[in-house]
Amino acid sequence: MRITKSWHSHIFLAIWISITVTTQSLSLDSQEENLFPPTNITLKMNIFKLHWAWESRNDTCQIKYNVCVATEKSSRTSCRSHKSFLSWHEVKTSIFNLNERIHFKVHAECSDGKRKSEEAKLSTFLLSGDPNTAVTNFRCVWYNKEYIKCTWLPGKSASPNVNYTVLYWQENENSKMELKVPHPALFHEFLNTAKFCRPYLYKDGIPEGCLFEISNIVEELQFVVADLSNKSITPFYSWMIPVKMLQLAPPVITNISKIDQYTIYARWNVSGRKMDHVETEINLTTLNTGKSIIASVKGQNWMELKANHNEPYTINVRSRIYHYDSNHPWSEWSANMTGSGESGYWTTNVILAILIPAAVTLLMVFSIVCMKRLHSYIFPPIPDPRKSFGGTNNLRVNILQYLQHAY
């Protein structure tokens, strides 16, 4: 009996020791799983870069950092992993819309993926003031490889005397631009490196367009549109890669003709370009009805359109460069070229068939009248002697009377 009790006590002791060791082990594992999150996140930037940095107190394993950057409205997100010695993250400003709030988050984790920290976050808004004072519909194109042309519309709440100025920076000329702490008027600190876009388009005294030339191909252009004399106008940030925003000059239509009753042939030229990677839209409009037919073609400068051309019509075209990774902006529409329909052709012929015989008939009548008068002038009629000599038949007496009267 004593042996049985002793055996039970030993079993109880072993179970108690096992539970205690397991609890301590779980407690240690729980402590090891909780890595410290990154701290002291800071953001610095210039016109072309956003640079985040942080501090870390984790040294229990080989650390890597998972970073994500996103804007408030855009669905585009940039996420990346870094090794332990990279406690910073840098992206190009062109990836995100700087006119929106930028959200940054980072967490640390062991390289084996077993332990990680909580996320550390930082949200930044670069602008201040009423967003309705900033320009809208801002767009820039590289026109025919000649110059950069930008257009925009004034903000809804902008004052009538607003004076928008477009500043731009070329990346290849500002690769070593200093990083600074962001604030709403940050672009003022980079005015010494900015260039000014020359206004060319005004509406009611407010500039709505500007242009400038570029001497060589640049990788990227950054823009800020602001009123330098009025801080209540919210600035607007934008960017472009010129080679991806090349706008062709309007094509020139060289020929339109009718092949048969239902086919129209059109041909055009695109200035200074081969037709490889060029897409063209053709717009055929019937003048009497206003109905339009739009067709497109790639890689060629002609097209046959199936249309009923019994009525007069106009054709105009526009072109753009296309690639597998991007589509460039369309050119402006070409000048209209007008073609006459079959009904117009027959109407003209009928009118001519009536007018020409009528004109010939009138000309013949006029000629006959003129010829009769001309004949009378050249060959006047012989006068009647009886009328000339008083109506008597005595020739001798009449002659004597005539001579006496004459002399």
From TrEMBL:
Protein location: Membrane
InterPro entries noted in UniProt: FN3_sf, Ig-like_fold, TypeI_recpt_CBD
Protein name: Type I cytokine receptor cytokine-binding domain-containing protein
Topology in the lipid bilayer: Single-pass type I membrane protein
Domain Type I cytokine receptor cytokine-binding as annotated: residue spans: 137-217
Top-level division of the source organism's lineage: Eukaryota
Keyword Glycoprotein: yes
First and last residue of the signal peptide: 1-25
Transmembrane regions listed in the UniProt entry: 350-371
Gene Ontology CC terms, in alphabetical order: external side of plasma membrane
A Gene Ontology molecular function term of the record: cytokine receptor activity
